[in-house]
Specification:
EC number: 1.17.1.4
Number of strands: 20
Enzyme class: oxidoreductase
CATH class of the largest domain: Alpha Beta
Protein name: Xanthine dehydrogenase small subunit
Distance between the termini: 53 Å
CATH architecture of the largest domain: 2-Layer Sandwich
Structural class: alpha+beta
Shape: globular
Radius of gyration: 23 Å
Pfam families: CO_deh_flav_C, FAD_binding_5, Fer2_2
CATH superfamily of the largest domain: CO dehydrogenase flavoprotein, C-terminal domain
GO molecular function, one term: xanthine dehydrogenase activity
Strand order of the largest sheet: 2-1-5-3-4
Length: 482
């Protein structure tokens, strides 16, 4: 096929001239004059550009808030894009969320308000009676510089209390929309705007064939990183192969979670919460909600960034990946995938197909992220801990760090300081000293080398305090909604 097809509010769109670097936000504002969707940061950080994207899954049609500024237009094939202009109440007036925002003074300058309303709308559709904690989580990716968030949270609570979900258009028309989107699916889609080419494979087998034809193509899954290559660095990504709709399988086999590489952070979150509960809080600090709805675990790995959020935890757990080239597959340890800065063990035409994650129920597990801002920020340093204790002795210790070196890797000297020693404070103090032999971190805009080294030492102490149940507090907690 040579057409990009999707629904935009209540209109079917068919485009023949689409380039790899075209963004959804530009299409909405410039081509469709839907200017309620704002551009704030152009990097998926502030949330002013938030729209809903509905997509078909094995469980039916779901709607998720995403960042239109870094969502590339070609990735919208066979989806339903919903903007602020489409919201309305049962009488054609304001939607209950919009009404509540007015009544509770949730807007001042108003620039960020459409994005906030769309994020709250996405939450309201899936959880109309959400509590304050769920609302705060939903708003992680929306920055408001005027009001603070208290009136916004009050508005969201009031909208939930008002009910009326059955009167919502997207709820009533979901089956009709799903049928229309299903009719847009088909074989491979080839698009171009001049020399700027975008390709959408039909399935994983077609992806393998396409990469054999175009081994140097840019793979685009959620575009949470590639989108910035376009908006901030003006990089040419053509030809680009869009794969965010592929490899969505998720299974649990004993103590192993098997994820397709295209599974997003949001899709994997329930499995993580159920099978690796110690990592649940860490998982919810990967970007904001919009980023978690777009970003995929496989791409976070394949990108090879030394500050990627998932690899430190996954390496500590002993995760493995399946790489595919044509019909040939190979499996390797995740830690062996990262060779050097910008270099991974991935051959031309090869792609990450699956991620295998041991749940390690016998182990003590923790994951930590250090960033300037708690929510929706990039790591200055991150760590994953997986420590097995038998009879009071540390039988196995696996500790991996991100942000501490040119690659994501294990702290071997610190692990050796723990191995075989009694599970006691002295062992973790020894590991805190030994981690200096593992890393020589750099100074950059996110943190100094000294800060990173100090953080690495202190995370061993924090792990001990948490796991030894001493009762010593390791974090300050603020009452939700306060």
């Amino acid at each position: 096929m040579t057409q990009l097809r999707f629904l935009l509010n209540d209109t079917e769109i068919a485009l023949t001239e689409v380039g790899a670097s075209d963004t959804l936000l530009d299409h909405l504002r410039l081509a469709r004059r839907l200017t309620g969707t704002k551009e704030g940061c152009a990097e998926g950080d502030c949330g002013a550009c938030t729209v809903l994207v509905g997509r078909l899954t094995t469980g039916g049609l779901i709607y998720e808030p995403v960042n239109a500024c870094i969502r590339l237009l070609a990735s919208c094939h066979a989806t339903h894009v919903v903007t602020i202009e489409h919201l309305r109440g049962p009488d054609g007036g304001l939607h209950p969320i919009q009404t509540a925002m007015v009544e509770h003074h949730g807007s001042q300058c108003g620039f960020c308000t459409p994005g906030i309303v769309m994020a709250l709308y996405g939450l309201w559709m899936g959880n109309p009676s959400a509590d304050a904690e769920a609302i705060e989580t939903a708003l992680q990716g929306n920055i408001c510089r005027c009001t603070g968030y208290e009136p916004i949270i009050k508005a969201a609570l009031a909208a939930g209390a008002a009910g009326g979900q059955t009167q919502d258009a997207l709820t009533r028309e979901r089956q009709v929309v799903a049928a229309r989107l299903a009719g847009m699916r088909g074989g491979r889609v080839s698009l171009a705007r001049g020399a700027d080419r975008a390709l959408i494979p039909a399935d994983a087998d077609d992806l393998a064939r396409l990469l054999a034809e175009e081994p140097g193509a840019t793979l685009v899954a959620g575009a949470t990183d590639v989108g910035l290559w376009v908006t901030k660095f003006m990089r040419d990504i053509s030809p680009a192969v869009f794969i965010g709709h592929l490899m969505k399988d998720m299974t649990v086999e004993g103590d192993m979670i098997r994820l397709g590489a295209g599974v997003t952070y949001s899709e994997a979150a329930p499995l993580i919460a159920r099978h690796i509960p110690a990592a649940q809080d860490y998982w919810l600090r990967i970007g904001g909600w919009q980023v978690r709805n777009m970003g995929t675990i496989g791409a976070n790995i394949a990108n090879g960034s030394p500050i990627g959020d998932t690899p430190p935890l996954l390496i500590a757990l002993g995760a493995r990946i399946v790489l595919r080239r044509g019909d040939t597959r190979r499996e390797l340890s995740l830690e062996d995938f990262f060779i050097d800065y910008g270099k991974q063990d991935r051959q031309p035409g090869e792609f990450v197909e699956q991620v295998l994650i041991p749940t390690r129920p016998e182990a003590r597990i923790a994951a930590y992220k250090i960033s300037k801002r708690r929510d929706s920020d990039i790591s200055a340093a991150a760590a994953g801990f997986c420590v097995t204790v038998e009879g009071g002795t540390i039988r196995e210790a696996r500790v991996a760090f991100g942000g501490m070196a040119a690659t994501l890797r294990r702290a071997r000297a610190a692990e050796a300081a723990l191995q075989g020693r009694p599970f006691a404070e002295a062992a973790f103090e020894a590991a805190a000293r030994a981690v200096a032999d593992d890393f020589q971190p750099l100074t950059d805009m996110r943190a100094s080398a000294e800060y990173r080294a100090t953080v690495a030492r202190n995370l061993f102490r924090r792990f001990w305090l948490e796991q030894s149940e001493t009762g010593v507090p390791v974090r300050l907690r603020q009452a939700v909604g306060a």
